[in-house]
Amino acid sequence: MSSLGIVSPQSMHFSEPLPLQSGASLSDYTLVYETYGTLNADRSNAVLVCHALNASHHVAGMYEGEAGSKNIGWWDNMVGPGKPLDTDRFFVIGVNNLGSCFGSTGPMHGNPATGRPYGANFPVVTVEDWVRAQARLADALGIDQFAAVMGGSLGGMQALSWSIQFPERLRHCVVIASTPKLSAQNIAFNDVARQAILTDPDFHGGDYYAHGVVPKNGLRVARMVGHITYLSDDSMAEKFGRELRNGGYQFNYGIDFEIESYLRYQGDKFSEYFDANTYLLITKALDYFDPAREFGGDLNKTLANTAAKFLLVSFTTDWRFSPERSREIVQALVANKRNVAYAEIDAPHGHDAFLLDDERYMNTVRAYYDRVWNDIENGVRA
């Protein structure tokens, strides 16, 4: 397997207003995206990869002139020549969602109505809004139907939403480490993280740009809370245990344990590159995702109009989006007599497992994309 090498982001501007679920609309917005591989003549080999909370359009490859792991795409182990999602076969698209802080229009950008950054006035967006924006980008690229739409975690919610909102526009739906809706516990974790940001004195009601500050303390705590939920107890114990940084207790409220050092490092790093308003928006999108709500909570009815074939993958130690939640989706698809494959991977890494290199996981995805490719070669279209 080889790397994609140097890649470059692209952008596309949209002037037609995008109606949002909240009743608001967004006009004059830009989507930043990257593509890898070559679109074939009949445009049948396109795969959309949807990103999770703190990721972006930079799915794979690296940027010219930048050094360090931050330069490498967040799913570079999954996407590229000879990799499970093989760019020698597929034309892969990664899109940065609206409200993000990585290029697409978000709170940091200018509000056409005021000429100042949107800040807290950026409209709340949902998973369904993101999917409609992605569909507009697909239209502009001349892609009527995706061979597959794929995502992990929040990206998996988007993939599932694609199968519900635009059933005729994807042939395969790949949902990894995701859920049909957040549990009360998950919503609680998100609210604690948001409260850390909202109560930071440097937040200034979301207009901290005008004050030349960043609510770093709030972002640090938010990231620490989130990061705890992405790891399993076993992986924490294996990595850190109760190791002490200095060999003994300091009897103060500084850093005694290695896990404390790790979490503070992750929080500090996150606060340097992520936008607080974006964090609030994206965690709310997570909380609001509940497509069965329009069907009285009946997931079977929700998925009745889907037409895609499905792959779902979960991980045994993922307590944030547990296997039980993936099984709910699988059972509803089976009840609707959909073509669905399901893999429950015994992996120790918690929710973060969907980003890692577990051989069984990678082989499962690779084998599924072999099926997707066979459909393309045999001219199978939904």
TrEMBL record:
<dbReference type="InterPro" id="IPR000073">
    <property type="entry name" value="AB_hydrolase_1"/>
</dbReference>
<keyword id="KW-0486">Methionine biosynthesis</keyword>
<keyword id="KW-0963">Cytoplasm</keyword>
<dbReference type="Pfam" id="PF00561">
    <property type="entry name" value="Abhydrolase_1"/>
</dbReference>
<comment type="similarity">
    <text>Belongs to the AB hydrolase superfamily. MetX family.</text>
</comment>
<feature type="active site">
    <location>
        <position position="351"/>
    </location>
</feature>
<dbReference type="GO" id="GO:0005737">
    <property type="term" value="C:cytoplasm"/>
</dbReference>
<feature type="site" description="Important for acyl-CoA specificity">
    <location>
        <position position="320"/>
    </location>
</feature>
<feature type="domain" description="AB hydrolase-1">
    <location>
        <begin position="45"/>
        <end position="356"/>
    </location>
</feature>
<feature type="active site" description="Nucleophile">
    <location>
        <position position="153"/>
    </location>
</feature>
<keyword id="KW-0808">Transferase</keyword>
<dbReference type="InterPro" id="IPR029058">
    <property type="entry name" value="AB_hydrolase_fold"/>
</dbReference>
<dbReference type="InterPro" id="IPR008220">
    <property type="entry name" value="HAT_MetX-like"/>
</dbReference>
<keyword id="KW-0012">Acyltransferase</keyword>
<dbReference type="GO" id="GO:0009092">
    <property type="term" value="P:homoserine metabolic process"/>
</dbReference>
<dbReference type="GO" id="GO:0004414">
    <property type="term" value="F:homoserine O-acetyltransferase activity"/>
</dbReference>
<comment type="function">
    <text>Transfers a succinyl group from succinyl-CoA to L-homoserine, forming succinyl-L-homoserine.</text>
</comment>
<dbReference type="GO" id="GO:0008899">
    <property type="term" value="F:homoserine O-succinyltransferase activity"/>
</dbReference>
<feature type="binding site">
    <location>
        <position position="352"/>
    </location>
    <ligand>
        <name>substrate</name>
    </ligand>
</feature>
<comment type="subunit">
    <text>Homodimer.</text>
</comment>
<feature type="binding site">
    <location>
        <position position="223"/>
    </location>
    <ligand>
        <name>substrate</name>
    </ligand>
</feature>
<protein>
    <recommendedName>
        <fullName>Homoserine O-succinyltransferase</fullName>
        <ecNumber>2.3.1.46</ecNumber>
    </recommendedName>
</protein>
<feature type="active site">
    <location>
        <position position="318"/>
    </location>
</feature>
<dbReference type="GO" id="GO:0009086">
    <property type="term" value="P:methionine biosynthetic process"/>
</dbReference>
<comment type="pathway">
    <text>Amino-acid biosynthesis; L-methionine biosynthesis via de novo pathway; O-succinyl-L-homoserine from L-homoserine: step 1/1.</text>
</comment>
<keyword id="KW-0028">Amino-acid biosynthesis</keyword>
